[in-house]
Write a structure and sequence with these properties.
26% strand; single chain; 10 helices; five-stranded mixed sheet; four-stranded mixed sheet; binds acetyl coenzyme *A; Peroxisomal Thiolase, Chain A, domain 1; alpha/beta; globular
């Protein structure tokens, strides 16, 4: 049976930086509150007139991943995009990205699993490689959450940001790459985080932000309490499945929601925070995009080398959560 190896990573962030001081001009908040409760200092906001749609960001991240993997677009068998903020209700972001890349031989579809969209998409890709249905799969997480945010709700607008990340998966007989994935959901708690129709325009200071008539609602406190045990438990399942202990893990790349959630997960798992890669101070919570952006930054800054065990773990709307255990192998042969 084939193994799915990550052979390229890429990411793309909008140019515009909105820092906490900028948010103080929009809602009744302070840099001190946001930093203390979340660890976020700034986030990126996509501007349509700068070609920063979900499709644009996803395609740019994908190009960078394909370039690293040295894979031409016409070799891609499947494109799967994790997203809750595609540019249109349909067609999918994946089809729009396929068009941008000229990936003429690829099937393309989106996966909607909240902030776990990337791990869910990675599992679909892994399964199609294991089943022999695909040899090369592009997995993308791309979001423009700024278009869904209610910019009058200080409880949510301070948390979120825009961006995209991508990985290229290649089939190989060499043991390694994706070792296991666990994904779970609990629809009974859907109303802790959802998006509904709304109509407030964006604040004047964000002129040029293209919004859609949907607004995000969240019960942050209850979500926090669900996120910590769920992420810790599914990470334990990943270790058990592979007969590993926490000492075997070189790096944890978690969904970047909130530094306090990550500290609590690290404490429950008894894994040092030093092993947790974080960049949420720069980008906030970019939902499905946060793990592939973090993976790209971690790899490009030399934090992952051949043979390292890397644990991805996520939690998000649905509710959904998941964990993937990887043996890092960019050149499986
Ligand atoms: N600035 C200043 N004050 C604020 C702000 C703000 N931006 N937002 C809320 N407050 C106020 C509230 O009104 C409340 O005031 P009160 O005590 O006078 O009523 C007070 O701060 C405390 O509010 P809480 O909501 O209880 O604060 P909490 O400590 O729970 O922190 C937070 C809120 C940061 C949202 C936290 O609950 C959280 O991170 N939850 C997880 C949310 C999350 O990550 N969601 C993303 C999707 S799921 C995921 O990715 C894991």
């Amino acid at each position: 049976m084939a193994f799915a190896h990550i052979t390229g990573t890429g990411s793309a962030l909008p140019q515009r930086i909105l820092d906490n001081a900028g948010l103080e001009m929009i809602v009744d908040t302070t840099d001190e509150w946001i930093t203390r409760r979340t660890g976020i200092k700034e986030r990126r906001i996509a501007m349509i007139d700068k070609n920063e749609s979900t499709t644009d960001l996803g395609a740019l991240a994908a190009r960078r991943a394909l370039e690293m993997a040295n894979v031409p677009a016409n070799e891609i068998d499947t494109i799967i995009t994790g997203t809750v903020s595609a540019d249109r209700i349909f067609p999918s972001a994946a089809c729009m990205i396929q068009r941008e890349l000229g990936a003429e031989n690829a099937a393309a579809f989106d996966v909607s699993a909240g902030c776990s969209g990337f791990i869910y998409a990675l599992e679909m890709a892994n399964n199609s490689i294991k089943a022999g249905m695909a040899k090369t799969v592009l997995v993308i997480g791309a979001e423009r959450l700024s278009s869904l945010v209610n910019w009058q709700d200080r409880g949510t607008c301070v948390l979120l940001g825009d961006g995209a990340g991508a990985v290229v998966l290649r089939a190989s007989d060499v043991h390694g790459g994706i070792l296991s994935t666990h994904i779970k959901s609990d629809g009974r708690l859907w109303d802790l985080l959802y998006s509904e129709k709304g109509n407030q325009p964006p604040p004047e200071s964000l002129n040029g932000l293209a919004t859609t008539p949907f607004h995000l609602r969240m019960e942050g406190n209850r979500l926090f309490k669900q996120a910590v045990p769920s992420m810790a438990h599914i990470a334990e399942l990943a270790l058990q499945k592979n007969g590993m202990t926490r000492e075997d893990i070189h790096l944890v790349i978690p969904h970047q929601a909130n530094i306090r959630i990550l500290q609590a997960v690290a404490e429950k798992l008894k894994i040092s925070m030093d092993k947790f890669f974080t960049n949420l101070d720069k980008y906030g919570n970019t939902s499905s995009a946060s793990i592939p952006i973090a993976m790209d930054e971690a790899f490009r800054s030399g934090l992952m080398k051949e043979g390292d065990h890397v644990l991805l773990v996520s939690f998000g709307a649905g509710l959904t959560w998941g964990a993937t255990l990887l043996r890092w192998s960019m050149s499986p042969g």
